[in-house]
Design a protein that fits this description.
single chain; 1024 residues; alpha+beta; 17 helices
Length: 1024
């Protein structure tokens, strides 16, 4: 017997058998219904809707059957003593359509009954259903697909009484856009259409007990795939049809029908989630009302949906005293603003970022954008030639970008002028410091922490707004802070009697900084310019970087009070200051276009606005602070109710509540810092680290979780960036004698590599684009995803296959190289065959080959040859070594050998028993002080895949300095690295795997969590 949760099925159709004989469950049952050869349709038999026998082959096509792929949505209806299956088929050169099959037994086998599709031959149609009207006349009700008409429709056409053919002309009943709940589809494949796209799927008609006729149908709503109900005003199939305003099912599920149980009660069937291969059938009890049906209580085994608002808001961040490590931020993935306890950036020195060297501290209170970049003009041009060194390799000398100097204790020593400049430019800008000031005798005076009393600040995660209250100079101040979800616009509303006397808002602008930890240089006022025009727009110019800051609001006084200082105050003696600031990059120069890797179109449910044009223009209504807060408050509930959720608070283990807190807050901080059009820097848009440049080996940790949490639209913009550096990466590979594209390590938006004794020798970032693209495809398995990312997948694979070199043992990696565990940088010229990278090479090359198969392309024999013949990792004393040359394993930095079965699924190279011993060995005496925040999710994922859920939870919540998660949700590492977003992203990837499971993993619910935990989850995507 099989449980419902173990049956992959879309478009479920439940047939109640006569004579109390039980139920048959039909549906789209091929493992991949989107591409590749189709098998047919299976069904399952049950007496209790919980335990199922099967699969039972219901339809298998004959060799000459006209359709070979995409077999969808079978429905089975009893009619005139036979059983009829209505199913959707397609073939090259033919329109998709519904064909009728028939059988004498409800289980089949079904054979063609109609001569091909009964839907119009020149229409793209799907999901036909049978309706018998009050006079006994059969009707075909089907969808005219959006792919042909943009606004999908539901259509009816009379059938002959023998169901062999249609009679008369089709009649359009309604269009998808007529339903108030229906929303336009927002995916890359429809971005260039001339009109919005609305989807219709899965019509099903029900004659209620009172004789009224209703129709269930599916489309897309605010929270993804959904089902609504239409009512026939005439009681006949021809309507007119009246749409109910709200969907009966509104979140990531649909294509259902209404069945009658053996006891006579009604149940709604649907599939959820809407992503392959994770969809499962679900049943919910219904009851009839006078005009429609409504959900009664969830059918046994399905559980109540998570109350997401309650889940999110119980982890709001409230602070009542200044915590120098834990400021909160607002943002939209492309732009973010981090504030102190005043709701502005009044006290930057109180939130320090430690320097790596003798420089002054920076600040956590940054205003940063993905587009905000700057380069200090060099005294003379610099290039990488002076740092290029020939290294011996199995193929002969190979040029690598190295360093004349070195990095010792995280500090650059002995570097040349060229290396210093190349590592520091371009660097990310701090776009402005916005804080309160007191005006005394016409002069601005700063505010100190001692001036602030009775403070309370709350980041309301559900609305994305921050409310700060405090007392200043004996007067109450209330500040509301928000960031617009689709523009780089900050909204502020200040309410205080102090505004009428002495309180103002100031904005100061710094020069760009080449410091490792600090984006602002305040020591060079002559090196840049700030000009405030009569429209309250501050025009900023720093060498070849230009951007504008537009101030908007009513009854304001805006003036330039210094070379790079502005003041904003209310007119007269108003007690309210309501204004916004919109940041916009200039054309050309070092600042890049905003969001230039996003597709145009309406904003997705979970994501932020994808339209660059609308993103950079201030709203025509003045864009006051309150309006910005209202836009944020409209967006964030959509974010939280889309995608996945995990709830743990019903678990008795006290660790569960802390883990739930970390999970919720990690979703917020990664959404505002990591969802932009560039791979993020490790400190996101809060403050600089590595001068704001991003590390491609960290991209998986920043962004893979978006796909696993069913928010793939937040991953795609940064994944698209690889295409912009594809040609440069091909040239890197070519110069080294390799095929394909070799991706760099530490870069700015231009993709130019940085001199390094470590970075250019890393190879584990090379398969990342393949993994990320595969996650995107698993979440949305359509051809458009394959075609968009095939280039970076295939070029990555081509490099990987040519980098591996054949020996008598098989295909090997290196030297030279540095593994993910960077402890071996000093011996980069001798390192070979790191355990993780060997497994990653095999897995990613096989995935790339699958992509070619999905696209109908010929295989590349070398890819398969390399994958099938990678050397096995080195084993020492029964555990996997990090590398296969002495010292084999240094017990510092990342225990990256664990990634080979944890981050990666099981491959032929890794023995689970040896990996289990390796995990135990790491946990015994690793140097935890030298680890990084993503190492703990690595251990959790490895433990989960080894079916040790207790160890998985222990790893996620291990007491260690680098595993600290602050009140604001950030993963602190050190004084100079005060937050670390790869740790948050890794936590989310691990939690998703532990809850939703992985391919071919244990069948039990939430297999990565202990069995005695109460884990509720929904909307997640199963891991590979």
């Amino acid at each position: 017997m099989t449980k419902l949760a173990d049956i992959q099925i879309r478009d479920p159709f439940l047939l109640t058998l006569p004579d109390d004989a039980g139920y048959l469950l039909f549906g789209s049952t091929d493992k991949n219904i989107w591409s590749g050869p189709a098998t047919g349709f299976d069904c399952y038999r049950s007496r209790d809707l919980e335990d199922w026998e099967g699969p039972i082959p219901a339809f298998r096509p004959s060799p000459g059957f006209w359709s070979k792929e995409q077999y969808w949505a079978p429905e089975v209806h009893g009619y005139q003593g036979r059983y009829f299956m209505f199913a959707t088929f397609t073939a090259p050169g033919s329109c998709r359509g519904t064909q009728i099959l028939s059988a004498e037994s409800p289980e089949g086998p079904y054979t063609p009954w109609s001569d091909g599709p009964v839907t119009p031959g020149d229409w793209e149609c799907l999901d036909g259903t049978l309706h018998i009207d009050a006079g006994g006349t059969p009707w075909l009700v089907f969808c005219h697909e959006w792919k042909q008409v943009n606004d999908g429709t539901i259509v009816a056409q009379q059938l002959s009484h023998d169901l062999r053919t249609t009679v008369g002309e089709p009649t359009v009943l309604f269009a998808a856009s007529e339903a108030p709940w229906s929303r336009a589809l927002d995916v890359p494949s429809v971005a260039d259409r001339e009109a919005p796209v609305y989807v219709t799927d899965g019509p099903f008609l029900l004659r209620m007990a009172n004789g009224k006729l209703i129709m269930l149908w599916s489309g897309f709503g605010d929270h993804g795939y959904a089902m609504g109900i239409a009512r026939s005003a005439s009681g006949t199939v021809l309507g007119p049809w009246v749409q109910e305003p709200e969907p009966i099912w509104g979140r990531d599920g649909g294509h259902g029908m209404i069945a009658r149980k053996l006891d006579g009660g009604l149940i709604l069937t649907l599939h959820q989630p809407n992503q392959s291969p994770h969809e499962r059938a679900a049943f919910f009890a219904l009851r009839e009302t006078e005009d429609s049906v409504v959900l009664d209580v969830p059918f046994p085994g399905t559980g109540n949906p998570i109350d997401r608002e309650d889940l999110v808001r119980r982890h709001n961040v409230t602070q009542q005293e200044l915590d120098p490590r834990s400021p909160v931020s607002v943002g939209n993935g492309e732009f973010a603003f981090t504030m102190d306890l005043t709701g502005l950036q009044t006290l930057p020195a109180s939130y320090p970022v430690g320097a790596r060297g003798e420089l002054p501290a920076g600040t956590l209170l940054g205003t940063q954008a993905q587009w905000g970049w700057h380069s200090v003009p060099p005294a003379s041009p610099h290039d990488l030639a002076g740092s290029t060194v020939l290294y011996d390799s199995p193929r002969g000398p190979v040029p690598y970008v190295d360093m004349v100097g070195d990095i010792v204790n995280d500090r650059e020593t002995g570097t040349s002028a060229a290396e210093t400049w190349l590592r520091a430019n371009p660097h990310r800008l701090d776009l402005g410091r916005i804080g309160f000031r007191m005006v005394r005798d016409g002069l601005d005076r700063g505010i100190t922490p001692g001036d602030i009393t009775q403070a309370t600040q709350t980041l309301d995660l559900w609305s994305g707004t921050v409310t700060s209250t405090f007392t200043l100079a004996g007067q109450q101040v209330k500040v509301t802070t928000a960031c617009h979800p689709s523009r780089d616009e900050l909204g502020f509303r200040v309410e205080s009697p102090a505004l009428g006397s002495c309180l103002v808002v100031g904005i100061d602008f710094p020069y760009g900084s080449e410091s490792w930890h600090d984006a602002a240089d305040w020591s060079k006022p002559e090196a840049h310019s700030t000009v405030l025009d009569g429209q309250w727009v501050a025009h900023r110019e720093l060498d070849d970087s230009r951007y504008d800051v537009a101030i908007a609001g009513e009854e304001l006084v805006v003036e330039q009070t210094g070379l790079h200082s502005l003041r904003i105050a209310p007119q007269s003696r108003s007690t309210v200051l309501d204004f916004s600031l919109t940041f916009t990059p200039g054309e050309g120069g070092d600042c890049t276009p905003r969001g230039n890797n996003r597709h145009s179109g309406a904003a997705p449910a979970a994501g932020f606005d994808a339209d660059p044009a609308s993103a950079v223009v201030p709203s025509s209504d003045g864009g006051t602070g309150s309006r910005v807060a209202a836009a944020a408050a409209a967006h964030w509930p959509r974010f939280w109710t889309s995608g996945g959720a995990i709830e743990l608070n019903a678990t008795n283990d006290p660790r569960a509540k802390e883990l739930e807190r970390r999970i919720v807050l990690s979703q917020y901080v990664t959404a505002i810092n990591c969802a932009g059009s560039l791979p993020p820097q490790e400190t996101g848009l809060v403050c600089n680290s590595w001068r704001g440049r991003f590390h491609l080996e960290m991209h998986w940790w920043h962004a893979a979780h978006f796909a696993l949490w069913n928010r793939t639209e937040l991953l795609l913009p940064s994944l698209r960036w690889y295409s912009s550096i594809l040609e440069a990466s091909r040239q890197t590979a070519k110069q080294q004698g390799f095929e394909g594209a070799r991706w760099p390590k530490q870069v700015g938006p231009d993709g130019r590599e940085s001199p390094s004794t470590i970075g250019t020798f890393l190879i584990w970032q090379q398969p990342h684009p393949i993994y990320l693209a595969e996650l995107a495809y698993r979440a949305t398995p359509d051809r458009e995803v394959l075609e968009e990312f095939a280039g970076i997948v295939f070029e990555s694979a081509a490099f990987m296959a040519s980098f591996a070199h054949p020996t008598g043992r098989g295909f090997e990696l290196g030297p030279p190289l540095v593994p993910a565990q960077e402890s071996y940088g000093f011996m980069r010229g001798e390192v070979s065959n790191p355990t993780f990278e060997l497994a990653y090479w095999q897995w990613a090359l096989r995935v790339a080959s699958q992509w070619r198969e999905r696209l109908g392309l010929d295989p590349v024999p070398l890819w398969d040859e390399v994958a099938d013949n990678m050397v096995t990792p080195h084993v020492t004393d029964g555990v996997y070594a990090a590398i296969d040359v002495e010292p084999f394993t240094i017990r510092t930095d990342h225990p990256s050998m664990l990634c080979a079965l944890g981050v990666l699924p099981r491959t032929g190279l890794i023995d689970p028993a040896i990996m289990k011993a390796t995990l135990a060995d790491v946990l015994t005496d690793w140097d935890w002080a030298s680890t990084w925040g993503w190492d703990y999710p690595v251990m959790a994922m490895t433990a989960a895949r080894l079916e040790d859920p207790e160890a998985a939870v222990d790893a996620l919540l291990m007491t260690a300095g680098k595993n600290t998660v602050l009140a604001n949700g950030h993963n602190r590492q050190t004084d100079s690295l005060p937050l670390y977003l790869p740790g948050n992203g890794g936590l989310l990837a691990a939690a998703a795997l532990m809850a939703a499971g992985w391919d071919n993993g244990p069948a039990r619910h939430a297999p990565g969590f202990p069995a005695d935990w109460t884990v509720k989850w929904e909307g997640l995507v199963q891991a590979p």
